[in-house]
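Subject: Sanity check before I submit

Could someone independently write out the structure tokens for this chain? I want to compare against mine line by line before I put it in a report. The sequence has 68 residues.
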Amino acid sequence: MEVESDTTPDDPHTPLARPEIDASSRIARRKHYSFRIKRAVLEGAEGISLRAQQNIWRPASNTQRLDS
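---
Independent answer below. Compare away.
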């Protein structure tokens, strides 16, 4: 036996499936944020390595000379 449903497909009370969302803008935004984070990390790493190199090769100004 077939059970009859009291709601029709056009009835506004029937649960709707998830509406389709255009994910292209969301994906583009994620890629942009990911790129900005990677760039910031790389720039920070470059800045740290440059500062480290400058500190290695620059003589300290507060050391006493051994010649005196």
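---
OP: Matches mine. For the report I'm noting this point. Residues 31-55 form one domain.
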